[in-house]
Request: fold
Amino acid sequence: MTSDFLYIWFPQQPAVSILIWAVLAIFLMYIARTPAHQALCGAARSLHNALRLIARSIMLAENQLRQRNREVLLAHGREAVERQIDREFQRVEALVSRDLSGYPSLQRDLKEQIAKIDEDYIQSGEVPPQPPEWLKVIEAVAEIPGNGSTVVSNILGDIHATLKKSMNRDLAEYRKANKERHALLKKMMPYWRSLGKTLVSVEKKITGLEHRSNVIDEQMQQYEQILAQTDQAERTLSSSSLTQFFISALVMSIAIIGGVVNFLLVALPMKEMVGAHSYLAGMPASDVAALFIIAIEVTSGLFLMESVGVTRLFPIISSLDDRKRKIIFWVTLTFLLVFASIESSLAYMREMLIADNAAITQFLSDNVKVEEPQLSWIPSVGQMVMGFILPFALTFVAIPLESFIHSSRTVIGLVVAWLLRMLAFAVRLSGQLLYSLGRLLVNIYDLIIFLPLRIEQSVRQRKSGAAAEVETLDEAVVASTEEK
Amino acid sequence: MLKLRLIFVVFTLVLLQSCTEAKMDSRAVYMLLDTSGTYTKQFDKADGIIKYLLAKLSTGDSLALARIDSGSFSEKDIIAKITFDLRPSKANAQKRAFYTAVNEYGKDIRNSSYTDITGGLLQAIEYLNETGASDKTILIFSDLKEEIKEGHVRDFPIAFNGIKVIALNVTKLKSDNVDPREYMDRIAAWKKRVEDGGGSWEVINDFDHLGDILK
Reply:
């Protein structure tokens, strides 16, 4: 049909027909050149502008999202630092109440020890021996001239002997007094040691307090930075959030594996309890029951961690008073114990079922009747212990879960912001490409009709050339007339 | 607000409906055992198939074993039948009891002078439909040579309605050896009868391919 229409001019000569169509088309295109150019350029410009507008809107949305991310990040950071500071203050309080509460008694001990030392010191003070009163008398007697008298000589000899005796006695007393002083000083040594120890312990406590105060100082600086909403604080929190996200995701995946193991332990015996052929929403009821038990255990674990204050996923629980939180703790712990016991028995039942299946297989293959299925104790006990421990192990999922939830908000925000930026770039690029395409189409249009355009150009040149010649002739005539 | 409540109620009802609906994915197998001629001596082979079935079938499935004799359209010909309990341990006990019953029967098989396969099939269809299983199978352990007592009417179409019929251990008779076309015609006739009734037909002579019997 199309070919018939194409060859309408000379059906026998298709080439000629096509040529006529081409000439006709070029002619029509030449006539419609200006409006066609305007339409192409207009369409390209409109699309370009529209896409630029869209890109701008996307960038605006990205900016808003980034701002919101920043706010959320800083809010979470502030909350985290507040918790840390709070914890540090609690530690300091504990330190002060534990160690420094005994400070008055410590001070009393120190004073007593110092008083005793002082007393001993005073007692140990060396008193210089007083010279005997009669020394002057002896000096006077000694100065009496002898003149060879034996009486004087005897008197002096007696005096010398008495003096010597007295000196020996004094020396002995002096030595005795020194010995007593030394004994007193020796008695002081334990007090000194005790005093030294007391002072060292005080120093240690003070150093611990100093360390805590340094930590608090650092955290306060961080807190101030967060409050001031600095870029540095944002970068630090963002990096910390990403690290938290990956670590918590890793721990969560390990926990999921633990959950799967738990499920495998429970699913088979659950068939015995709820039947193997009942279904809930297209899923075997035994599987649903097993999943339900695991879900209850995880939930109990979450509440347990919340009541202890390890996590803060539920503000209502963390805002409760200590007595109520204690009640929640005991209730969830009881739940966990009950479910752990149930799981343990289910694990045992699983082993029994496996043994029974093995027995029936043996019965059908070898025709050997097995009255009591052989139950091996090691795997049974192993599975029971595992069934008891896993619920408690799953309790700790609450910690990475909290980190994951908090950090995923930041990570998702960052990813979405990046995607929006990429989208804005793509839209902007598309707009630019469409604009260039419009210009290219205009050039292709002109290329198709290059022949009439060339003819038009030649005609114009000729016309302008003739006009220039006429002008030159006119100028020459005017010049010759002027010369004449 | 009222609309929201209504939507919530409808959604809950739909959810409950879907929750309480039991999935019909249970299987039911009815095995017909030829007791005519030499087939009484081939009970060992049938025993192997029963063991295979007991191992393969699980909780909620049904299994019946019946003999083909002079007039097989009767409950009296059912040797043992069971629908396994939903609890695996109970189902295992039932399997033991079923096999014991079959074993007892195997010790004292009486030879039948006629082979009423059609009657057996009708009884099988009735049993299988009563089980309400989604996957129904009839196993025929026979040479498929029907010999009916005089006066019994069996030449009418049977409605199989999606039941899978598998002929097992179809032995060749002496006359088949003389003219093998008899054997092929016999199988073709049964195939046509089953397929015309809306069932599917299969022959398994090699017991290594028993794995295809059940899904």
Observations:
- The helical segments of chain B are 2-20, 43-56, 88-107, 117-131, 174-178, 180-196.
- Chain B has one domain: 29-212.
